[in-house]
Amino acid sequence: MKRIFKNIALMACAGLMLNACDLDEFNPSAGDASLTSFDAWSGLHSYSYSCLNDELYTAMDWLYLAEGGTDLWVAKSNGTNYKQLFNYEDPTSNYNTFQKVWKQCYSMITNCNSVINESTNLNDGDPETIKLLVAESKTLRALYYSILVCHYGPVTLNLKSSAGITGDVDLYPERSSERDIYDHIIKDLTEAIPDLGVEPYQGNRARFTKKSAKGLLARVYAQRAGLGQSKYGDANTYWKLAAETAKDLIENASSYGAYLYTDIADMWADANNRTNKEALMIAAGPDASSTAWQYIGKGNKLSAYSCGGSYSEFFNSNHKPGDKGYFYGRLNSQNWMPSKYLLYCFNPEWDKRWEYSFQYAYCEWSMVQCGWVPYSAGVKKLNKSICTKYDIQVDETVHPDSTLYPYADCNAIASSNGAGNQYPAKVWPKGDYSGDPNKLLSIGKSAEEAKKPGFAGSTKVYAIPYPVAPDDNRFNTVFVHKPLKDKSKCLYAVVVLDDLFGSNDLPYGNVDNGSEAANPPAIGNGLTSSSACPSLIKFNWSYNGVFYGSNLQIKTGDMFIMRMAEVYLLAAEAEQQLGNGTKAAEYLNVLRKRAARDQANESSWKLTTATEEDIFDEYARELCGEFSRWSLLKRHNAFESRLDQYNKRAAQSFKPYHYNRPISYEFLSTILNKEEYGDNGYGSTAGSGLVE
């Protein structure tokens, strides 16, 4: 399929004028469409990365496509916009999310094709550099095609240069078999690995390297194995390849430049976000201190879409998170929330991934460091009506003044390059109410540093050390897995996670399609689904260089496309599917050990064997929210069983044809063989087009 959506010449020129994904070189216009100049050619190559930061990994479309409609997430309320994604209720080919991901991937694939095909026509450039950049383009093309074939099934495998170069547009595209598409993805990656460097080209962290292609290859083998189970009868062949590839990357990590942190706190440390050693591929966000800031997309609002906020009445007037969110960011845009299954996957008694994945405790904040918001503005004296509503049984021997105090204090640091102020936060010590900024606790740059005096016990300010003490009056809301025995000592609202959901496990407020969840419990947990819930914090950062001034919905941190932990999960998954449960458990235990608290007994986290259910659970704990759940359920043909257990609303509408997303209506409206191509069975064409 040729480039249908945009004129490649215009796109190439635009791409050559701007850098992308923190690719700092400046690329002049090609001048012609032949790409014989290295500068023009390498500029188009750089532009092929742009979709990662500008669209795919910073916008809700790909996130909700990759995570929604699974056992991990539910629509927070009953809004029409997300019924198609989260509940499979009348999805259509003209729904914007389905169209955007399709368009983004194919537009970049065409650029990759041009770079690869035209590399032999260059008049200048170092041959070794050209070979390296071709390998990068093959890895990029493999990534984009892996998204398309997983979500849309047998689409068109186009390997031709853009219409701006070839001069023709194919308006009668034909589908390719999923087998052929996967074969070519695997070919691209196996050819790319030897030619890629261990270190990124020009030291640019956004570039793909040897470990990127190797990790992606393991993922692709696993996804192909699932297709072998459901269609081709060759699943074991590809599970073995997935196991071997993952094992090689794990056992020879240093030769690939790969690394796994030994403490989950280091993995999610804000100090490691831009230089994360565990990352295999990233979508590099712009740094406010870099001159590249002005040229790179700054639209990442995933933290705002993921954070549910706290009960507003616990905050002082005109200081609510949905208004002036200098600490959390604006918390008035959440439209999805974790399912009951996901929340109870975690056992926080031993697993630190709980607080490093979810904001389970909420607080007030101040801005004493910069003089913007006094300490007193974060002080809240509880009145009788609040205590009655949230079942706060004030023990006057513990809290004689019934007053809550700030937990965090944000600074305001001016930046250059038009990035606006930066608001990194520190923590007020428990029991100190002086408001003296000299007493603030710093966030650790490493797990070891976080434990030292003068530090807050965490490498991420939003990761609240577990558990919150009953007498800690720096928090207003704390979500717990089971009722507290000493609740009477708590000045904060205690919300049991189970009370977020009705008996059918749908959140209160999600009232359609058989839900009984119209009236949540009134005492202690009232209206939780419409005002507060644990919030995913993997996309929320607080360090100098990640803020976008007064636009408090945007955070510009690096996004992880794939990290080394997934390779361990893939190794475990493949071994389990091959009948080697003991070996699978060994891989899982590496991840579980690094997540375990210092005081946790080995018996609480160590597995002796692993079942398929263990694989599902460990993926949930480790990778929730990281663009992977839908593909996992697809390769295990598990939508029906998992949704029936953990997402009953989605289960009611799920049909077998939902294993493939609808083909883009915009694409179908452009080609001249729409009816023959088909829309995967969603009703906008006479047939599905699925003939394989």
TrEMBL record:
Give me the Gene Ontology terms describing cellular component: cell outer membrane
Q: Where is the signal peptide?
A: 1-22
Predominant place of localization? membrane
Signal listed as a keyword = yes
**UniProt superkingdom:** Bacteria
Indicate the segments forming the RagB/SusD domain, all copies: 510-651
- The regions listed as transmembrane in this protein's record are none
Q: Give the similarity note.
A: Belongs to the SusD family.
Output this protein's name.
RagB/SusD family nutrient uptake outer membrane protein
